[in-house]
Automatic annotation (TrEMBL):
The keyword Ribonucleoprotein does not apply. This is Adiponectin receptor. It comes from Medioppia subpectinata. It is a multi-pass membrane protein. Keywords: Membrane, Metal-binding, Transmembrane, Transmembrane helix, Zinc.
């Protein structure tokens, strides 16, 4: 298959003017899109396989986590809370894979899968917030419910915006990125709030919770860096045509999403372990008082 340059493809397809070459010829055929993605190397290959492999990896991690001895002490609710994150990130990565696979189909199909891609991002934000808030404010139900409600509301707003055709237009790239960034940055408030409440965890669980908060901050930093690269099309903006196939902004964003997902999984594991230790400590104290 002969790859095209940006001047030979429609505007709806070549929306990044700093990527000059490596485009698949547009063709309204799903079979062609899949076949060209698997058998040919082009400027979407890195985007497709980074998130496809990422989705398979998190599916394996989900299976391993639920069968690990550490998680055998978790209740059904705990396992469901953990599973919410895995479900969210796997669906997000798969929808992203489909978007990049069928991007060369047609304008109509591109818009459809762009909407699904943005809905997947919203789902990932919700699936990341909810479990962490659940464990972080486990013994503060009022604050927990407040943060959960506000998180779900903001994600619903993003979800509705994602359904509008205008939201996926190339000229709204920066606004679109800012919407998701602001949604994600709303985690600053519960994160800082929880930091002020670390004393409630006790001497054993507090260090675990503190490490969890640090990892959450690191995760957020990676998301912000990735989003900024995507917004300003860095590094291809600096050297147009030099990053057509490898290391362009979208690939960097994809890679950082996967790394940030791993950071979040570790953060959530530490927070869940902190609450489990706190719960066991309280049960031991109750048993001691009862027997005494």
């Amino acid at each position: 298959m002969k790859l095209l340059d940006v001047t030979s493809v429609p505007d709806w397809y070549g929306d990044n003017k700093f990527i000059r070459h490596g485009f698949r010829p547009p063709k309204p055929c799903f079979k062609y899109c899949i076949k060209s993605s698997v058998l040919n190397f082009h400027n979407e290959s890195g985007n497709i396989f980074s998130h496809l492999i990422g989705a398979l990896f998190f599916a394996f991690l989900w299976y391993r986590s639920m069968s690990c001895n550490v998680y055998q002490n978790f209740s059904l609710i705990d396992k469901l809370i953990f599973s919410a994150f895995f479900f969210g990130i796997i669906i997000c990565l798969l929808l992203s894979t489909l978007f990049h696979t069928f991007r060369c189909h047609s304008r109509r199909v591109l818009k459809l899968f762009a909407k699904l891609d943005y809905c997947g991002i919203t789902l990932l934000i919700a699936a990341s917030f909810v479990p962490w808030i659940y464990y972080g404010f486990y013994y503060l139900p009022t604050q927990r419910n407040l943060y959960l409600t506000s998180t779900i509301f903001l994600c619903m707003v993003c979800f509705v915006l994602s359904l509008f055709d205008k939201f996926s237009e190339p000229e709204l790239r920066k606004i679109r990125s800012c919407v998701f960034l602001l949604n994600g940055c709303s985690a600053i408030f519960p994160c800082f709030h929880l930091y002020l409440q670390l004393y409630m965890f006790g001497p054993t669980a507090a260090p675990l919770a503190f490490k969890s908060i640090l990892l959450l901050i690191l995760m957020g930093t990676l998301y912000i860096i990735g989003a900024l690269c995507y917004m300003f099309k860095i590094p291809e903006r600096l050297c147009p045509g030099k990053f057509d196939l490898w290391f362009h902004s979208h690939q960097i964003f994809h890679t950082l999403v996967i790394v940030a997902g791993l950071m979040y999984f570790h953060s959530l594991s530490l927070m869940a372990e902190a609450r489990l230790n706190q719960r066991m400590h309280q049960n031991n104290d109750l048993t001691f008082l009862t027997t005494d």
